[in-house]
């Protein structure tokens, strides 16, 4: 699912040739729509914490985890923080299936067309969720996306938020061809830790794991940490 260069495990894959994800969501208000930018989005809409939901239903909605024999892990973060690189290495290490949502949307046309103004695809979140539902129920999936609030909460056992120093991220995005508002928006997204906030609003805080991703050593350490976590994971008995 990931691009060629990021499939390598050794040595360090080097600069990525992949293109920007170029997706935004129809559920976000016009002021919030950004290309490759996870903005200050509204609280989630599907399967998320719902204060009006009776406790017993909330427990049942987490029951999907009990059916899984392998965990599902979401790796999120601002574009350029290293999600695809980390997921590619991790998927090889632990034999999870890596799903890059940007690639999936383009391959299966899970979008509502092209936004001329923002120069990006308009992701159809419902189509994405429908496409993934069955495989998420089976477990063993590593999801890679620069947003996290539209997935059902019950899907994930761990939500990793990669974070990168602003100046390092600036260089990575510039070398990817980002400029102008697209560059600024993504850097601001990182400065204000929007993905971490979105993750904490959308999932139980104890399953949200922020990890630094500034350099090669960070990637190696993160892959090691996540490999250990995944290998030690056991299905819930509840
Ligand atoms: N921790 C890191 N250290 C050094 N380079 C990195 C790191 N993480 C990512 N990169 C590089 O930054 C670029 C973007 O990485 P990528 O994995 O595509 O990010 P994302 O999937 O979050 O958009 C790639 O050229 C990759 O090699």
TrEMBL record:
From the Swiss-Prot or TrEMBL record, state where the protein is found: Cytoplasm; Nucleus
**Segment LID: which positions?**
175-185
Q: Name one GO biological process term.
A: rRNA processing
Q: Which residues form a coiled coil?
A: none
Superkingdom per UniProt: Eukaryota
**Keyword Repeat listed:** no
User: What EC number(s) does its UniProt record assign?
Assistant: 2.7.4.3
Q: Which UniProt keywords apply?
A: ATP-binding, Cytoplasm, Kinase, Nucleotide-binding, Nucleus, Ribosome biogenesis, rRNA processing, Transferase
Region feature Disordered, mapped onto this chain: 1-80
Q: Which GO terms describe its cellular component?
A: cytoplasm; nucleus
Point to the regions of Polar residues compositional bias: 1-32
**Quaternary form?**
Interacts with small ribosomal subunit protein uS11. Not a structural component of 43S pre-ribosomes, but transiently interacts with them by binding to uS11.
Cite the HAMAP family for this sequence.
Adenylate_kinase_AK6
What the protein does?
Broad-specificity nucleoside monophosphate (NMP) kinase that catalyzes the reversible transfer of the terminal phosphate group between nucleoside triphosphates and monophosphates. Has also ATPase activity. Involved in the late cytoplasmic maturation steps of the 40S ribosomal particles, specifically 18S rRNA maturation. While NMP activity is not required for ribosome maturation, ATPase activity is. Associates transiently with small ribosomal subunit protein uS11. ATP hydrolysis breaks the interaction with uS11.
Record's protein name: Adenylate kinase isoenzyme 6 homolog
Which taxonomic lineage is given here? Eukaryota, Viridiplantae, Streptophyta, Embryophyta, Tracheophyta
């Amino acid at each position: 699912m990931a691009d060629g260069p990021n499939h390598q495990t050794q040595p360090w894959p080097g600069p990525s040739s992949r293109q920007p994800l170029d997706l935004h969501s129809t559920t976000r208000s016009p002021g919030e729509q950004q290309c490759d930018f996870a903005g200050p989005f509204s609280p989630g809409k599907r399967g998320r914490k719902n204060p009006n939901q009776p406790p017993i239903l909330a427990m049942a909605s987490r029951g999907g985890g009990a059916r899984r024999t392998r965990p599902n892990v979401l790796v999120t973060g601002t574009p350029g923080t290293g999600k695809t690189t980390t997921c590619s290495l991790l998927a090889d290490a632990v034999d999870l299936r890596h799903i890059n949502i940007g690639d999936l949307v383009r391959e299966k046309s899970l979008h509502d067309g092209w936004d001329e103004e923002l120069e990006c695809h308009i992701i159809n979140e419902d189509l994405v969720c429908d496409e993934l539902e069955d495989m998420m129920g089976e477990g063993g999936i590593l999801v890679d996306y620069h947003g996290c609030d539209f997935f059902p909460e019950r899907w994930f056992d761990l939500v990793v938020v990669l974070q990168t120093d602003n100046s390092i991220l600036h260089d990575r995005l510039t070398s990817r061809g980002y400029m102008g508002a697209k560059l600024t928006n993504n850097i601001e997204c990182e400065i204000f830790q929007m993905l971490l906030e979105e993750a904490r609003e959308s999932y139980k805080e104890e399953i949200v794991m922020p990890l630094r991703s500034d350099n090669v050593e960070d990637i190696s350490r993160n892959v090691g940490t996540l490999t250990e976590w995944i290998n030690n994971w056991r299905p819930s008995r509840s």
